[in-house]
Amino acid sequence: MPFLLTYSQLKREKGNFMRKITEENLRNAYSSESQDYTRYLIYAEKARDEGFHNVARLFQTIAYAERVHARKYLLCLNELSDTVENLKTSLESEKYQVEELYPSLFEVAGLQNEVEAQIGFHGSQETEQVHAALLQKALDSIQKSKDVTIGEIHICKNCGFTLEGEPPTNCPNCGMPKERFKEF
What we know:
With 184 residues, the chain is mainly alpha-helical. The protein folds into three domains: 7-76, Ferritin; 82-147; 151-184, Rubrerythrin, domain 2, CATH 2.20.28. 65% of the residues lie in helices and 5% in strands. The chain is built from five helices and three strands; from the N terminus they run αααααβββ. It has helices at 7-14, 20-49, 53-76, 83-111, 115-142; strands at 153-156, 162-164, 181-183. A three-stranded antiparallel β-sheet has the order 2-1-3. Strand 1 (153-156) and strand 2 form a beta hairpin. The protein is globular and about 50 Å long. The N and C termini lie far apart (43 Å).
C-alpha cells in the first residue's frame, strides 16, 4: 500500500507528538541505514580496487538507496533543520565525541589491552576536535549571515585526520606521508 501522505504532511496532521517506541525504532532504523550506507561505499571501493567495477557500481547504487532511507527517517524524527541548527547539532555531536565518547572508549579498550582500538579511538578523538573547530568557525560565520571562508581541507586516507590548509610532511595522527591526504 503506497503512502498517501509525505512525512512532513503526516507530521502536520499529527503535530509534534511521537510515541517513544516509534521514536526509538526510527532512531534504530536511521542508525542501521546510515551504517549500511557507509559499509556499501567502503565495499564499493574494495570492489573497484579489485577490478570489479560493476560490483562497485552495484554497491554504490544500494548505498544511495540506504541514504534515501536514512534521510526519510531523519526527516520523520524532525532532525533536519536550517543550516544554523544543523551546525549547532553537528557541533554538539562532535563535542560529545571529544569530551565523553572517545575518552570512555579509549579507557575500556585500555582495560581490555586492545592497543589497536585505543590508537583508533585516540586518533578519532583528535580528529573530532578539528571537526568541532571547523564547525564552530562555520557557525560563527553563518550567524553573521556570511558563508564561512575556508581554505583547502585535507583528510588523511589512513586515519581520517582532518586539517585546513596544506598537509604536513606526515600525518600527525598516524604518520602517513602527505601524499596519503585527500583534498576537499
